[in-house]
Amino acid sequence: MKLISLPASPFARKARVVVIELGLQNRVEIVDPGVVTPVSNNEGLNDINPLGMIPSLVLDSGEGLYDSPVICEYLNHIGGGSLFPDNIDARFKALQLQALADGIMDVSVALRYELAMRPAELHWQAFIDNQAEKIERSLAQLEQQCDEFSREPTIGELTVACALGYRDFRFAEADWREVHPKLAKWFESMMGRESLSLTVPI
Ligand SMILES: N[C@@H](CCC(=O)N[C@@H](CS)C(=O)NCC(=O)O)C(=O)O
Predict the structure, then answer these.
(1) Distance CA 109, CA 38 (A)
(2) pTM score
(3) CATH number of 2-78
(4) Using CA atoms, how far apart are residues 123 and 119, in angstroms rounded to an integer?
(5) Inter-CA distances, 59 with 62, 72, 74, 171, Å
(6) What CATH code would you report for 88-194?
(7) Which residues pair with 29 in a beta bridge?
(8) Which H or E run includes 194?
(9) For ligand 1, atom 2, which residue shows the shortest CA distance?
(10) Does the C-beta of 38 come closer than 6 Å to ligand 1?
(11) pLDDT number for residue 75
């Protein structure tokens, strides 16, 4: 299998973290697709995923699989993992947490495109402010919830760690740790995991 991935992408990081958590490194080759942005046209990637987005997984059959929740669940299945618990309550808790953290990454990536790629004279301040508030509310929610995070991380906890890592990578000036000390402590302990320490965005 080939995982189409770039080191800066938090969604691709999530898939790479899952590969390492499940010990699938020998079965998954990490492939760099070249430039991937909302205004680039990467034809090789478009052939695999019509949305032209990463991560995308190419199965040994040649079939493409996306997006990151689908890829991670597939990897968990073939790796015999428990990142997507079977028990219904635990499962939807994990999926809800993944959705919240994916949302933080979606909003953060959209803001990054707006601020770093869109010409400054076209910046849309109401959009920027509103996205920042979404992030703030979501981090506050995680601060409230993190005491109850699973000790054995599920896809939910792993995605939260990738979302926080992306905040540090692209929005280091917006220090979230002071306002969210419990979350900061939890994140620090998660960074001891090999899967996360080996995939810090660059
Ligand atoms: N829902 C997707 C989001 C993936 C995503 O936003 N990837 C970004 C890179 S971090 C991308 O490919 N952007 C290119 C584009 O927007 O066309 C997932 O979970 O995989």
Answers:
(1) 11
(2) 0.98
(3) 3.40.30.10
(4) 7
(5) 5, 13, 10, 34
(6) 1.20.1050.10
(7) 2
(8) helix 194-197
(9) 67
(10) yes
(11) 98
C-alpha 138 – ligand 1 centre gap (Å): 20
3-state class of 4 per DSSP? strand
Residue with tokens 């994916």: 102
**68 CB near ligand 1 (under 6 Å):** yes
Beta strands in 14-96 (DSSP E): 29-31, 56-58, 64-65
In angstroms, the Cα distances linking 182 to 52, 114, 128, 188, 189 are 37, 30, 27, 10, 11
> What CA–CA distance (Å, rounded) separates 80 from 44?
31
pLDDT (0 to 100) of residue 23:
98
Per-domain boundaries in the chain: 2-78, 88-194
| Chain Cα centroid distance, residue 55 | 10
Low-confidence ranges of the chain (pLDDT < 70): none
Strand 29-31 vs strand 2-4: parallel, antiparallel, or unpaired? parallel
Q: How far is CA 24 from CA 27, 79, 195, in A?
A: 5, 7, 11
- pLDDT reported for residue 167: 98
Q: Do domains 2-78 and 88-194 have the same CATH topology?
A: no
Six-digit token pair at 25? 């490194």
Grouping H, G, I as helix, E, B as strand and the rest as coil, residue 29 is strand
Average pLDDT, the chain: 97
Choose which residue among 11, 45, 117 to substitute to test ligand 1 binding: the one with the highest number of ligand atoms within 8 A of its C-beta: 11
Q: Which atom of ligand 1 is nearest to the CA of 39?
A: 17
Tokens coding 50 = 């019509």
